[in-house]
Amino acid sequence: MEQATAIHSGDPATTKPILEMRGIKKHFGNVIALAGVSFDIRPGECHCLLGDNGAGKSTFIKTMSGVHKPTEGEILFEDRPMNFASPRDAMEAGIATVFQDLAMIPLMSVTRNFFMGREPTKGAGPFKRFDVKHANEVCIEEMRKMGINLRGPDQAVGTLSGGERQTVAIARAVYFGAKVLILDEPTSALGVRQTSNVLATIDKVRRQGIGVVFISHNVRHALAVGDRFTVLNRGKTLGTAGKGEITPNALQDLMAGGQEMAQLEGSLGGTV
Amino acid sequence: MPADSTVTDERVRQETVLARLMKRPELGAIAGLVLVTIFFMFTANGAMFTLSGVMNFLTPAAQLGILAIGASLLMIGGEFDLSIGSMVAFAGMIFGALVVNLGLPLIVAIPGTLVFAGLMGVVNGQLVIRTGLPSFIVTLAFLFILRGLSLVGLKYITGGSTQLRGVRDAVGDDWLAPFFSGDAFTGLFSTLAKWGWIDTFKSGAPKVPGVPVEILWFIGIALVATWVLLRTPAGNWIFAAGGDRNAASNSGVPVNRVKTTLFVVTACCAALVAIMTVIDAGSTDARRGFQKEFEAIIAAVIGGTLLTGGYGSAIGAFFGSIIFGMVVIGLTYTTIDQDWFQVFLGGMLLLAVIFNNVIRKRVTGER
């Protein structure tokens, strides 16, 4: 896995972006949600997209995952201009998004959730059936790769912790051939230990050469796994920085839009 | 990763048989069946558990069960159909009209009836999906619409009566009739009677001439429904559609198609019951299937199906229906006033719902 480490150090010369968004603008009526955002993601890197609430993060990832069409701007996927009509299109191209609601059904088993909508079958004609044995084996194996030992493949998703559910959703996306994995605030509702599990999972995914887009408003979580950091504020990118090129405080200030935060931080004694 | 795999295996083994059983939605129904059986063993006349007694309560259980299995699939898929009772009357009318008034053979009349019922299922399903209204309300409307149509239609067909007679004569000895009425395995049963293995009348004819065909349909449909639910992609889609329609549709499950199909299946189950009971009775009337929708939903709930969808089983509905038939018929074998039946039923429904809720919380770890 040494070469993987080299890749995710984020040297721009060595790898070409797998997905490139150029000058994306998105207007909803007369509301300008995105005013020209550029962003790219390379294989095997974790690119963090940071921004405060209302900065346009959600609109941007929905554009990336095919939910919204950009009003203006270009999306290049593996050097080809793309025009996703639906999330399904984006998914088939290899852009998987794990939204905050995770698309998981608590009453169903992990395996049934894992293969929901994409069940492996065997047999033909009227006897074509859900290959439960194969599905269970794959599910157990994929979850073990992510560091989770299931009690059994029939364990209901409802019994898993928030972090484990997040991991199931990520493992599912990876298994079904994601090249770019977009994670929408995967750590926002999690406790400390679960957060570090999810961050470790992100690292594992990155090592498989998948480009991870990590959306967060938590600078510490982002710095823990990120290779590059892009800050969004009021629908614009405030720039991209590589790992080690920026301090947590500077990132925090950028997210909040500069001065006000500096003042606030002073009054709070530097705790945020 | 050999170390890892042994860890996983140990954890799988740690789950006791009891814990695994607790996960099955039909557990409650099986436990209920055992309890009800024990109750009647002590209170009922011994005749109840002879072969003819068993057939006696399995026949109504089977008629209800076919409806209940359809209803349980639909409930697992997250929707209700309150119109199935009225659908029995409506489909009975269509079938009667096709056979008696148009004189069609069963090979045409039966598919024709199923198509009519299926279309009503499509209408129900599409109305629910397109309006976004709860299926409870939409199908409640159809409970009245279909019942009313059956009344009006029957009067129109017969020239004023709400009963259509002459089905038996019209069916006659149609080659398809034995599949939908009467008894199966009659040869086997008379052989058994000759050997003295089963009770006979003085004439030597067996007291139970065979297995009523509805019981075979009931068992067959329960097996097919269980197979579909647990072993096909469609089964996974049904659970997913009922569990969370957004999550399901984001994952690529064709939720609307699944739900519409389930409405069609439920309507066709009702039509099948209508066909069998109409041929058996030789006539159809507008009151056929009255309140069956509630009985079917109760049987499904006793069978462990959640009212909120996403969880349940067809085998559970199978046992739930047998409990139902046992209680209805069983009370006639006891000295207990039969009118206790409704009290019994309501109590059982309440118990089942409470039990289901507890089980669900245990299974999913919901707090």
Automatic annotation (TrEMBL), chain A:
SUPFAM superfamilies: P-loop containing nucleoside triphosphate hydrolases. Keywords: ATP-binding, Nucleotide-binding. It comes from the Bacteria. InterPro entries: AAA+_ATPase (IPR003593), ABC_carbohydrate_import_ATPase (IPR050107), ABC_transporter-like_ATP-bd (IPR003439), P-loop_NTPase (IPR027417). Pfam families: ABC_tran. GO terms for molecular function: ATP binding; ATP hydrolysis activity. Residues 19-259 form the ABC transporter domain. This is ABC transporter ATP-binding protein. It comes from Thioclava dalianensis.
From TrEMBL, chain B:
It comes from the Bacteria. The keyword Cell membrane applies. It is found in: Cell membrane. It holds the Pfam family BPD_transp_2. Keywords: Cell inner membrane, Cell membrane, Membrane, Sugar transport, Transmembrane, Transmembrane helix, Transport. It is a multi-pass membrane protein. Coiled coil: none annotated. InterPro entries: ABC_transp_permease. Its main location: membrane. GO terms for molecular function: transmembrane transporter activity. The chain crosses the membrane at residues 27-51, 57-75, 82-100, 106-129, 136-157, 177-198, 210-230, 262-284, 296-329, 341-359. One of its GO terms (cellular component) is plasma membrane. Part of the binding-protein-dependent transport system for D-xylose. Probably responsible for the translocation of the substrate across the membrane. This is Xylose transport system permease protein XylH. It comes from Thioclava dalianensis.
